[in-house]
Design goal:
By secondary structure, this protein is of the alpha+beta class. The chain is built from 4 helices and 6 strands. The longest helix has 10 residues. The N and C termini lie far apart (about 50 Å). It comes from Fistulina hepatica ATCC 64428.
């Protein structure tokens, strides 16, 4: 018997990543946004959700947006994804933002599906 195997030792504190960085594992909730104008940027999409029309409460948990680009040309594919840190905001966005305009076109909103 090896002396090292007789007494189990806890892992070093630096290996407990979740304890030192609780946001590293926080959940995110995404939606699909389609029918976007070619000139729509990531920041345009975030702005629409954080500063919607006055009759809709802002989506304060809107964390980021990602417009999908053609890998060869770099041109927008006309759709993207918006991430939220709050599931209630994600669910509300699915209902309240569908059909509202982002720049010059109404958005088509649906749940994001995993690859």
């Amino acid at each position: 018997m090896n002396w090292a195997s007789a007494v189990p030792t806890p892992p070093p504190a630096h290996q407990n990543f979740a304890a030192t960085n609780p946001q590293a594992f926080s959940k995110e909730y995404s939606i699909f946004v389609g029918d976007l104008a070619p000139e729509t940027s990531n920041s345009d999409l975030v702005a629409v959700f954080r500063n919607p029309p006055k009759f809709i409460r802002p989506f304060l948990s809107c964390k980021s947006a990602k417009i999908m680009l053609d890998p060869v040309t770099g041109v927008s594919r006309g759709y993207g994804f918006v991430r939220f840190t709050d599931e209630a905001d994600q669910q509300r966005a699915l209902i309240e933002m569908h059909g509202l305009y982002c720049l010059s076109r109404p958005m088509r909103i649906s749940p994001a599906t995993a690859k």
